[in-house]
Amino acid sequence: MTRAAAATARRARAAMLAALTLAALLGCREAPRDDVDGARALRRVRLQVDAGMRIPGTPAHDSVRVWLTGELARLGGRVALQQFADSTLGHPVDMTNIIGHWGPDDGRRIALLAHWDSRPWADRDPDPRLRSQPVPGANDGGSGVAVLLEVAERLAKRRPAIGIDLVFVDGEDLGTDEHPEGFCRGSKACAERMRTGATPRPAAVFVFDMVGDAELDIHPEVRAAREAANLVQLVLDGAAATGATHFAADPRYDLTDDHSPFLDAGIPAVDVIDFEYRAWHTTRDRPDRCSAASLAEVARVAAWIAFDSPLAQPAP
Known about the structure:
The chain has two domains: 1-30; 36-312, Zn peptidases (Aminopeptidase). It is built from nine helices and six strands. The chain is of the alpha/beta class and 316 residues long. Strands 1-2-4-3-5-6 form a six-stranded mixed beta sheet, with helices on both faces. α4 (138-155) links the parallel β3 and β4 (163-169). 40% of the residues lie in helices and 14% in strands.
C-alpha cells in the first residue's frame, strides 16, 4: 500500500469511527426527563378559558370536566372521579374531583394538585361595575391544570418509580371574605377521604395555583414553610435542579389555599403559588397575562418532583 493509499485508508477509518460514535451517542441519548412544552401548556390555558367560565353547575364546567377526564385517560392515567354535592352557592350543586393515577398502586405515592373550577365573581375588579361578572380563570385555575397536564405528558412516556396522583379539585373558588368556608370545597372532600383511608394517603401533596403569570414570582407560603419545611425545600431544590429563576426562598403570605385542608388532616402539603398576580379575582385574568415560559418553568419543577426528587424514589 502506498503512503497516499494508507493515508486515505486512515482517514476513511477515522471518519467511519466518528460516524459510528455519533450514531451510538444519538441512539443512546435519553430525552430530557424534564422536557415540557410551554406553548402546549398555554394552548391548554386558552382552551379552558374559551370553553367558558368553569363555575360548578354550568355547561362550561361540565364540558371541561369531560375534556380533562379524556386527556388524563388518553395519556395513560387510571382515572377516578370523586363526586360530591355542595350547597355553597345557595343550592345543591354536583361537584367532581378528577384524579389520574400512574405508577404502582402499592408503596409510596405523592399527589400533585390543582383546582379546575373558576370563580363566579370578579369581586376585586378595579371597576365596581364588573365585580358581579365571573372571572375568566386563565391563571387562577387554568395555569395549574395546564402544568399538571404537562406532567401527564411525561408520565405517558416514562413510568414513574412510585405512585403519582394528579388531582384536579373542584369548588376551590366559591368563598368570600365574609364566608371563607366556601373556599377549597374539593380539597376538603379529598383530604377527608385520605384521612379516613377511603382513598390512598400520599406521602406529600404539592399544590400548583396561579403559576402562569408572565411576571412570575413564587415564594413559599408561610404556613407550609412552618409545618412542611422539608417540602418547601424540596420545591426549591427542584427549582435549582431545573434552572428555574423565578422561585425565591423567603416565605410570603399566610394563605388559605388547597394545601390547607391536607395540613389540617395531618398530610404534609405545600402551596406552589405566585400571589403577586395583579389580575387576581378580576375580569382581567385572561390568557394574555400568562406566559408559555412561566408555565414551562413551573412544569419542569413539577416533573422533577414526580421523577427525580428524593420523594420520587421507592421507599427502602
